[in-house]
Amino acid sequence: VGGIGEAGVRELVEFVRAGGTLVCLNGSGAFAIEQFDLEVENVVGELARDEFFAGISILEVETSEHPVMAGMPERAAITSSRSPVWRLPEDSDASVLMSYPANGVPLLSGYLLGEKHLHGNAAALSVPHGDGRVVMFGFRPQWRGQPFGTFKVLFNALLVGGLDAAGSDRP
Predict the structure, then answer these.
(1) How far, in Å, CA of 22 to CA of 19, rounded?
(2) Residue 137 and residue 156 in contact, taking contact as beta carbons nearer than 8 Å
């Protein structure tokens, strides 16, 4: 009832600052952006449904060579379920783990309205915070049939976070 509260949020922020890894799935990235004061923008968060909509759709993304993406192909499929789409400021220390193609229609299955809002933006990020990091997946890597393609990134995020608290993933 009521979630972790203010004291829990402070403890979580301190955990990450001290070298921990927080992994956020889909919409929970909004919590991290707000509570950790991350410089990450959800470019579709305020758009009306007639401007952007991807209900439960399978979308193509491009993966980086970041350790969290170990075992993933250069192009992968993710399931979007009213998922966030992120943009970073140009001077960001964050790493883009997965991004939507810069042009074209990334829709593989389902429904997508407003694909221009995806072009070149991030589907997954690793954002440094103190000595730790917040790994944000703008989808649910563990959801239904998707684990066969994306479950490994969830485990990779936990493993990589523990390997180098100094942030070897920073550019």
Answers:
(1) 10
(2) no
pTM, rounded to two decimals: 0.90
Q: pLDDT at position 163, please?
A: 56
Q: Are 143 and 79 in contact (CB under 8 A)?
A: yes
Number of other residues whose CB lies within 10 A of the CB of residue 111: 11
Instruction: Report the distance separating Cα 43 and Cα 100, nearest Å.
Output: 13
User: What is the chain's Cα-based Rg?
Assistant: 15
Residue 3 has pLDDT above 50, yes or no: yes
Contact by Cβ (8 Å): 114, 51: yes
What the block records as the tokens of 98 is 């997965």
> Residue 84: helix, strand or coil by DSSP?
coil
Choice among 10-24, 53-67, 154-168 with the minimum mean pLDDT: 154-168
67-112 tens-digit pLDDT? 999 999 999 999 998 899 999 999 999 999 999 999 999 999 999 9
CB 132 within 8 A of CB 18: yes
- Specify the DSSP class assigned to residue 104: S
CA distance 151 to 133: 19
